[in-house]
Amino acid sequence: MISEKHIDSGREFDFGLVSSDYAAYRDIYPEKFYNRIFDAGYYHKDQTVLDIGTGSGVLPRNMYKYGAEITATDISENQIRYAKALSDRLGMNIRYMAGSDTSLSFDENSFDCISACQCYFYLNHEIFSEKAYYWLKSGGRLVFFYMGWLPDEDEIAGASEQLVRKYNTQWSGYGDYRHTIQLPEIYSRYFDIELNEIFDAEIPFTRESWNGRIKACRGVGASLTPELITDFENEHMKMLERFPEKFNILHYCAVLSLKSKK
């Protein structure tokens, strides 16, 4: 379990509790998202890449086709089990490890690139920034990615978010809006900014897959009791009957690429 004072008022959460839904419903990034990662210089053939906070391994699996040698880590052992099973099923040779950004240990100059998708707000930046610099080769790159729905512009996303807040009043992940990824000043000691941008994406869902995506978020499956999750899901699916069976949800994608000062 994870508990941080600045996240959900310190309420504990564990994405390992919702690994099955995470694996089934969070592989939703659009192709242009992966293309942007590649165009920014990541996951190229002959590169060694470390993915931090990999969850169920969505990013490594989708970038595997480019030929990089990939190591992927997550704090949750259950997430790693799902990630490994999904990759093995596809015949992908991805190295998986359980561990946090503060507990992981690699040799100096181990990687050409490090990626962190959907997890930059969970990292201990004072520790991770220095570790990433140490692990990267000379001129190595560190990239952060994030994709979030826009509740003030998308009716379905807004309605679902209100329901999450009904069941979890401590959830602080609501009210997202377009913004670039901002990191603490400590990173400027080790890295220079190469790219910092945002772009929109319409992500297709069905009622079932959107319900699964919401259930797999921190405010529901990772923190509520099984009984409350069931109650939420029943009410959420009932609410979704107001909308078509298939629909798009407006998201924005943020990319921040840093280059080592080595």
Give short descriptive properties of this protein.
32% helix, 7 strands, alpha/beta, 7-stranded mixed β-sheet, 262 residues, globular, 26% strand
Strands of the widest sheet, in order across it, are: 3-2-1-4-5-7-6
Low-confidence stretches: none
Strand coverage percent: 25-35%
Strand element count:
7
Oligomeric form: single chain
The mean pLDDT is 94
Distance, first to last CA = 35 Å
- General form: globular
Query: If helices are DSSP runs of H or I spanning 4 or more residues, what is the number of helices?
Result: 8
Q: What proportion of the residues is helical, as a percent range? A: 25-40%
Q: Element order, helices and strands?
A: HHEHEHEEHEHEHHE
Query: Roughly how many Å is the radius of gyration?
Result: 18 Å
Q: What class, by secondary structure content?
A: alpha/beta
Largest sheet: 7 strands, mixed
Outline the structure in words.
The chain has 262 residues and is an alpha/beta fold. The chain is built from 8 helices and 7 strands. The protein has helices at residues 19-25, 31-39, 58-63, 77-89, 125-135, 155-167, 207-215, 226-240; strands at residues 48-52, 69-74, 95-98, 111-117, 136-149, 191-206, 246-260. A 7-stranded mixed sheet has the order 3-2-1-4-5-7-6. α5 links the parallel β4 (111-117) and β5 (136-149). α1 crosses α7 (207-215), α6 (155-167) packs antiparallel against α8 (226-240) and α7 (207-215) runs antiparallel to α8. It is globular, with a radius of gyration of 18 Å.
Topology (SSEs and partners):
Elements: H1 19-25, H2 31-39, E1 48-52, H3 58-63, E2 69-74, H4 77-89, E3 95-98, E4 111-117, H5 125-135, E5 136-149, H6 155-167, E6 191-206, H7 207-215, H8 226-240, E7 246-260
Parallel strand pairs: 1-2, 1-4, 2-3, 4-5
Antiparallel strand pairs: 5-7, 6-7
Helix pairs in contact: 1-4, 1-7, 6-8, 7-8
